[in-house]
Amino acid sequence: MTIISIDFDAFYVSCHRSIDPSLRGIPFAVQQKHILCTVSYEARARGVKKLGSLSEARKICPEIQTVNGEDLTLYRAISRNVFAFLSDYLGTDTPIQKLGLDEYFIDITRVAAQPREQCDKQAQSQSHTQTHLVCAENRLTDSEEIYVSITADIRRQIYTHFQLTCSAGISNSVMLSKLVGNLHKPDNQTLLNVRSDAELQAFLDPFPLRKLHGFGRVVVDRLASLLGCENEDDLTVHSARTRLSLLDLEEEFGSRLGARLYHNLRGIDETVVKQSDIRPQQISIEDSSGKIDSAADAWAMLESVTERLVRRLDEEYATVDGGSGSNGRSRSVFELHPSRVRVSTRRTSTIPNTRVAAHVPESLSSAVGVSLFDIDRYTIEERARRLCRECLYSLTKKLYDAGVAHGANKLRVINVAFTDFVNGPPPAPIDKIIRSKKKTEVVHLSSSDDESVEGSEQEEDAIICPLCHAQLMSFTVESHMRFHELGD
């Protein structure tokens, strides 16, 4: 098995440079609020730190240029296009797992057996000169030569089509590919070409645990506590491997996770690359603020986040089918639609030196009303407001009140997500179903012709619910529709 990791270099920065070449080669950063979320390598060379403050960056590098990156639309669009391109270029037999917006794991084991685009000699030469070897003294095997060329070809295709550079790692596992891919950034690739378990362990042992994929902060903190290590930088693969037995790890983390960590410390990772969906099964938008002190403040942020989420839903999931809507314009349809919406919060406790009780709910969800998908009738703003009125206001109020009851009245983050996506178009609103018919069927009890005519004139605009066959007035359709949704 051969797996490569692809990690884009300063992805947000590269996205802006791909559409504005004047930003290339200069100190440049993308900011979100007052923090620099992505910093170009030119700025890093001047001492500017990622996640540092904008004011501090300007002191260090006065000429640095910045753009606001709080709207992720550009980055999401480029990420989707890259993923779609790679899926098409490599074929259905090559699993591609996407992590976030800018990282991929690709199992290229079977790519070598497939016909590939031929590279000229100059390109082949470049692919080797830009490949770093973990063990320089080990000569490449024929298979390694092929995988090095495939990786270089993938990176070259990405740059040709999107003007984005990326770094890559090549090994026999997800964990090791991620590790070696980070060794020589930016715009390079690294091959783990060890020939024995001893060589592999000698390579791994000096690394801090946090450098290994799968060893997040929570796991490392628990390991540091287990070993009595105050500085996590002193907690290396060697120290954990030699001091912790399989039994120690299983007692601390359980049999499944404990066994995985034990083997990871020895360079063994059996994680399988799982094919990601072209369209994710869940999308979300969140925002943060230190000024959410009341339910009204929370609702104001909720409205903004919900509007952005509805806009994202339209951009990523709605397609034009060529027909005409009621407004005479091209009709948009959803080939995939969410069935539920979830609101989540993160809060700050007002009680000094305490954490919010674990049983305080941090998220609640509800079914999505069909009006959300009436894209031809309502604007994005109107659909977002309807969604807030139908369920999100009440869900957010419940979360806020639960926090207040436990001394946590200050929210920091509000996240709204569409989940549980279903294939196929969503159901149409009841009134649209009925009014699309040329004639409305009305049943009369009387057999008198005169009474039937009279009744027909009186019931000309009647709407019949197709679910329960109740006769509705036009102004009651929406509430009746909601009644059925809640009942289901």
From TrEMBL:
Protein name as it appears in the record: DNA polymerase iota
GO molecular function, one term: damaged DNA binding
GO biological process: DNA repair; error-free translesion synthesis
Signal sequence segment: none
Pfam families the record matches: IMS
Domain UmuC per the UniProt entry, residue ranges: 3-216
